[in-house]
Specification:
Blueprint lengths: L2 H9 L2 E11 L4 E12 L4 E5 L6 H9 L7 E8 L2 E2 L5 H7 L4 E4 L13 H12 L4 H14 L5 H4 L9 H13 L5 E5 L7 H18 L2 E6 L2 H5 L4 E6 L2 E7 H6 L4 H8 L5 H4 L20
Helix pairs in contact: 4-5, 5-7
The structure holds adenosine-5'-triphosphate (ATP).
């Protein structure tokens, strides 16, 4: 580790530098991510916005060592003094789900349909921590409480099909945070949800970020989602970050034509143009009423 990396490691969070992801052969590479920099800071939500196919998900997957077979990477993903791109599969297994966790668009992707919620939460915990069954059950209940799943004592006995989409996403978030990770990557976490429950899940992410000091990467094509949540926003286009900055700078004074078009396309973008932010960068809205549907 050089001096600069040692300083970053001491600061915590995660730093992506010059990340590239490509497919195809070495002779004919198809670049997907073309040398991007992103900082994930404890207690902050970093938004990664951009249209479909711009490389957002590949960026998130690279951070977890979950890129599809055939993907080639370059650059660095520095976490705790190590470049995750050079980590062995064993090291990645130890990190993934415990220190760097991911939530996907479809919560059922991280839940087994035939196992009770309690079984899945405690199994996941006990794979990674030396903890007896009773203590694991208590942690599962406490984590479900933290993500505002009603009646956790009953919920742990139920199966995924017995919950609504919004509740399932909360349970998937519980799976992601039960081992107390430092980094949470949320890839389109509300895209599949009914609009009436989206806001509640987003507020939950904000409050977890604030309460647990999580460094969150929020990936979404929907700039509207960022507008109420992210501290900083990076806008990605064709594998490149074309604009980056504090949320209200990016939304109110976009420098790039592409970002301006994204902002203009929002159905109701007036709040971002107000002098007073609709939601403070300190996550004020997150502390408001939180529906749990
Ligand atoms: N296994 C693969 N081989 C080759 N190209 C791939 C593979 N998987 C994904 N891609 C390409 O990588 C590009 C970026 O995909 P990515 O999923 O990161 O985009 P995105 O910005 O997250 O968009 P979306 O919101 O649609 O998921 C896409 O053009 C896709 O076709």
């Amino acid at each position: 580790m050089n001096a600069a990396q040692a300083t970053e490691a001491a600061r915590g969070g995660l730093q992506i530098r010059g990340l590239t992801v490509s497919f195809g052969s070495e002779a004919k590479p198809v670049p997907i991510v073309r040398g991007i920099d992103i900082d994930l800071v404890p207690g902050q939500i970093t938004g990664l916005a951009g249209e479909s196919g711009s490389g957002k998900s590949m960026t998130g997957l690279a951070m977890c060592g979950l890129l599809p077979a055939g993907a080639r990477t370059g650059g660095r993903i520095d976490f705790d003094g190590k470049n995750l791109l050079e980590a062995s599969e064993r090291e990645l297994e130890r990190t993934r789900g415990t220190r760097v966790a991911m939530v996907f668009q479809d919560p059922t992707a991280s839940l087994h349909p035939m196992l009770s919620i309690g079984h899945q939460l405690t199994d996941h915990l006990r794979v990674h921590e030396k903890i007896d069954k009773r203590a694991a059950r208590a942690r599962a209940i406490a984590t479900l409480e933290r993500v505002r799943v009603p009646d956790p004592e009953t919920a742990i006995k139920k199966y995924p099909h017995q919950f609504s989409g919004g509740q399932l996403q909360r349970i998937a978030i519980a799976m992601a945070i039960i081992c107390e990770p430092e980094i949470l990557i949320a890839d389109e976490p509300t895209t599949a949800l009914d609009v009436t429950v989206q806001a509640g899940v987003l507020r939950l992410l904000r409050s977890l970020c604030d309460e647990l000091g999580l460094a969150v990467l929020l990936i979404t094509h929907d700039l509207g989602v960022m507008s109420s949540l992210a501290d900083r926003i990076s806008v990605m286009r064709e594998g490149v970050i074309i604009e980056e900055g504090p949320r209200f700078d990016v939304l109110r004074r976009p420098r790039e034509e592409y970002t301006r078009a994204l902002v203009a396309a929002l159905p109701n973008h007036e709040p971002f143009l107000d002098d007073e932010p609709a939601v403070g960068t300190d996550g004020a809205a997150a502390r408001g009423t939180e529906e749990t549907a």
